[in-house]
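Give me structure tokens for this 248-residue protein.
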Amino acid sequence: MAKRRKLIVGNWKMNGRLTSGLNLAREVADRATASMPLTFDIVLCPPATLIWPIAETLMGSPVLLGGQDCHYANHGAYTGDLSAGMLADLGCRYVILGHSERRMAYGEQGDLIAQKVTSAQLAGLTTIVCLGETLEQRASGATETAIVQQLSASLPDKYHASQLVVAYEPIWAIGTGEVPSVEEIRIVHRLIRRSLGVAGETVQVIYGGSVVPNNAESILQDDDIDGVLVGSASLNGDGFWTIADKAR
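Here you go.
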């Protein structure tokens, strides 16, 4: 089986104003351009207010653009929402779906996420579907059951494997500084691949949850881990590039 290309994703969440966001995007773009040709893919997912100006900033660089969420409908009376087509229209190539913060804060369930996957893929976006167990599930030995159930529920019956990335983000590790061992991550990633069947051989399975420069190398050097989804550490250009550079 051919070695899968690494994917480095920066999820800015609800952070960044116009000046700071443009400066951060420009720093990452400049570093990526100076390092061409890249042996990995790098994606920035800023808040929606910054997508268009950052799209212009990234133009001509190898850095790709993504959204943090989308609605399942193409258009309609959905105040405050953005469709996948709108994201694609602004230059997005990726979209994060089913992040635990949306599952927990907004009650998003698998069936809704599956609808979003369908809509996003029809719009030409690559979907980064997030999965992860709680601390209680981990403590009770229910990690594998939780992951398989989330994966099954969050994917539509028909999807394009070429437009799918699965991000394993244990909820207890997000923003806590706690990180599972590489062996623990590897076990879950292999479980995800088995659950995907034939598609599991090609789909990128990445890790997220307190990824920082100090632990990035050991995570990214493992063949079963196809990249990282970086949260707070992606808000620092130097730190984020240090993480990305470990994927070489």
